[in-house]
Specification:
mainly alpha, 563 residues, globular
């Protein structure tokens, strides 16, 4: 990679580091109840929901409220998709979405996955895009943040029976954080050239005489929240590679920043709310170091010439530009691919299926590690804290002491719950992926190891609630639409429930003062241990599958074997 590409990566990292304490400080004040300037807007919502904002919930009641709210949201989106042919704001006259794709899409947006087995501009009406998908972009993001905040309260409190109120956390997250920032960002995107209208598609003729329709619509408003909320679902099938979603290099930088902004900021929020900012920066350091390694590998891999093209006589080709926007280049494509999969976002400005084998390995590994390298808004922090519980337990075994974290003893209950949460990803990816491979192998379009990578990526993306894809996989078949819908629900809520149980258990514990034998959890030793536990758990689980997929493909490609 040239000096320009390295400079772009360093600039991006500097922006994230600089904004982390600003975002973290704001969110800490928000969830500690110190921001009340929109109290007049909160009160009608609480009355409508029958919620007393001062009444907090036990973790089980918090979980029940969360599950019920998301079930209602899923049903509402499904209904909009099935009925959109008869509803207003449908100038393109798109028909009703098929039952299986409607189920898959409704689950996808409710779980913050935003997996799209359809082309947005050809399958969804403006009403469905706004009232269904964009609304879920807000509330699914707020759901993840609410769970993370509940877990933070669990570690911050002692001898408590409650972890907060789900309706209050959700409402304040949307009103004070997501809506204002998304509104301003939408105005910025309109200024830069993104459409925001209800006009019909525009017919046009190319220089070759080909007739086509240029799709438009309420794009900017959906683009803003899809990036901010780690959603990723694009208004257009080409997602953020489309010039209407991502018009300029400036929008590209802002949208890439939003991929990690809130996820990184929540690490600082964690440190502030537990009373020791060093704890938050230790988690940020573990995430950041893994991110730097991943983005460096992706950028290096994509900077290499594809030997298949070199053999064909393209000796002057430098780097792999297949599937990339020329206006963004290799560095920005590598940063986005790494950040979008590290952040559980799933939006793309380049096609991952066209990456070099090792370049495609990076986003795949980001997801398989549980998307804890910053991760989705909220989901990344609570996912990493699950690994923290496991790392502290392992450290306790090494020194022969009862493990502690932030003054809370980590006992058998917390470890069991952490293991349950960690097992969700391999069960969803390998279990449901195996069913898909056996029952519907025709969905794999590419031969050889790349076909396996496509299937592995599809079920990793669904279970990990990411939403990006190796596009050659036939995800729209009824079998895969249903299986991946199950994977999305399992990957989201089978993690959230154990996490909330950990929050409740931690909140009920007394705080134990540190002693000479307490392992410091804010230093380099613990950061190293946390990285090792995260990588080893993911590596041991998925290494055989990765070896048969992208690793074999890389070795075969550079030995001259093509499939």
């Amino acid at each position: 990679m040239d000096a320009n590409g390295i400079l772009q990566i360093l600039l991006y990292l500097a922006v994230i580091v600089a904004l982390t304490p600003l975002a973290g400080g704001y969110m800490a004040r928000l969830f500690e109840g110190r921001l009340t300037f929109l109290a007049w807007a909160e009160r009608p919502i609480y009355r409508l929901c029958g919620t007393a904002p001062e009444r907090e919930q036990h973790w089980s009641a918090y979980a029940f409220s969360l599950l019920a709210f998301n079930l209602v949201g899923t049903l509402a989106v499904y209904g909009l998709e099935r009925l959109q042919v008869w509803l207003p704001l449908n100038p393109a006259g798109v028909g009703a979405v098929s039952p299986t794709i409607a189920f898959n899409t409704a689950v996808s947006f409710a779980t913050n996955t935003n997996w799209q087995a359809y082309g947005g501009e050809t399958a969804m009406s403006y009403l469905t895009q706004m009232a269904g998908l964009a609304v879920q972009n807000f509330v699914s993001a707020a759901t993840g943040i609410a769970v993370a905040v509940a877990l933070i309260r669990g570690f911050a409190r002692h001898s408590a029976q409650t972890v907060g109120n789900f309706t209050v956390d959700l409402t304040r997250c949307v009103l004070y954080l997501l809506l204002p920032v998304a509104f301003l960002t939408a105005l910025f995107l309109v200024w830069q050239g993104a459409p925001q209208n209800f006009d019909a598609y525009v017919p046009a003729s190319t220089l070759e005489g080909v007739h086509q329709l240029i799709a438009q619509g309420p794009v900017a408003s959906q683009e803003a929240i899809k990036q901010l909320g780690s959603n990723g679902g694009g208004f257009f099938n080409a997602n953020s590679a489309h010039p209407f979603e991502n018009p300029t290099p400036l929008t590209n930088l802002v949208e890439m920043t939003f991929l990690l902004l809130l996820a990184a900021g929540l690490t600082d929020t964690f440190g502030r709310m537990v009373g020791d900012r060093r704890q938050g920066w230790a988690i940020f350091a573990a995430m950041g170091l893994m991110f730097v390694v991943c983005v460096s590998l992706a950028a290096w891999a994509e900077s290499q010439a594809n030997p298949a093209l070199t053999v064909a006589g393209m000796d002057s080709l430098v780097g792999n530009m297949e599937g990339k926007e020329v206006r963004f280049g290799i560095a920005n494509s590598a940063i986005w691919a790494t950040a979008t999969t590290a952040a559980s976002n799933g939006s793309v400005n380049a096609m991952h299926d066209s990456f070099m084998p090792l370049g495609g390995l990076v986003p795949l590994v980001d997801i398989l590690l549980g998307e804890v390298i910053f991760g989705g808004v909220g989901a990344g922090l609570y996912g990493m804290l699950v690994f923290v519980v496991l790392a502290v337990f392992i450290a306790g075994l090494m020194v022969g002491r009862t493990p502690e974290y932030l003054g809370k003893k980590i006992e058998a209950r917390e470890v069991k719950l952490a293991v349950l949460a960690i097992l969700v990803t391999p069960l969803g990816v390998l279990g449901l992926g195996a069913i898909s491979l056996l029952a519907g192998p025709e969905a794999i379009a590419a031969p050889g190891p790349h076909g396996l990578s496509e299937l592995l990526y599809a079920y990793a993306s669904a279970t990990g609630n990411n939403g990006s894809a190796f596009a050659g996989f036939g995800a729209a078949t009824p079998l895969n639409a249903i299986l991946q819908g199950v994977a999305m629900v399992f990957g989201r809520f089978a993690v959230i429930v154990p996490v909330l149980a950990i929050a409740g258990s931690a909140a009920a514990k007394k705080t134990v003062p540190p002693s000479a034998g307490t392992l410091p959890t804010h230093g380099r030793l613990f950061v190293t241990l946390l990285i090792a536990v995260t990588v080893v758990v993911g590596g041991l689980t998925f290494f055989p599958a990765l070896a048969l997929g992208p690793v074999v493909e890389h070795l075969a490609l550079f030995s001259g074997t093509l499939f």
